[in-house]
Design a protein that fits this description.
alpha+beta; 144 residues; five-stranded mixed beta sheet; 4 helices; globular
Length: 144
């Protein structure tokens, strides 16, 4: 397991580092503005992984804290992958008292199914029950 320390709360996050990763290295938010990242963190439960005072990982949950949560923007810097950092962040999430009462926690992932299955995530029980409005490039539009 990694020696990374885990912190929660937007006030403990390095928003510039998070923005850098999301806008430059993620496959899901390339080009996202700093302002959009900063605002989105204000309305999320934030979890960060730190090593030597530097943010090396991040995850957030958009939630009402009672019935539903959406896990998003999960990453670990490449140099720190394979060391259990993401598992520590997810363990921290599921240790939160409110997490145990959520009826549904969802996420999108392209490549980390094995990780999430270790935390009881499964394929959708009833995929035909879900619908979406999908606008993948909306974060690239100018704010009005």
């Amino acid at each position: 397991m990694s020696a990374a320390s885990i912190k929660t709360g937007k006030e403990n996050m390095d928003v510039r580092a998070i923005h850098r990763f999301l806008s430059e290295d993620s496959y899901w938010a390339k080009g996202i503005s700093y302002e959009l990242v900063d605002s989105s963190l204000q309305h999320s439960f934030c979890i960060g992984a730190f090593s030597a005072g530097r943010q090396i990982g991040f995850a957030r949950v958009i939630t009402d804290y009672y019935t539903f949560g959406w896990l998003a923007d999960v990453y670990v810097l490449e140099a720190h992958r394979g060391q259990g950092v993401s598992k520590k962040m997810l363990a921290c999430l599921f240790e939160q008292p409110w997490a145990g009462r959520l009826r549904r926690i969802m996420l999108n992932t392209k490549d980390a199914h094995g990780l999430y299955r270790q935390f009881q995530f499964t394929d959708l029980a009833n995929p035909t029950f879900l619908q979406e409005i999908y606008r993948p490039g909306i974060h690239l539009q100018e704010a009005e």
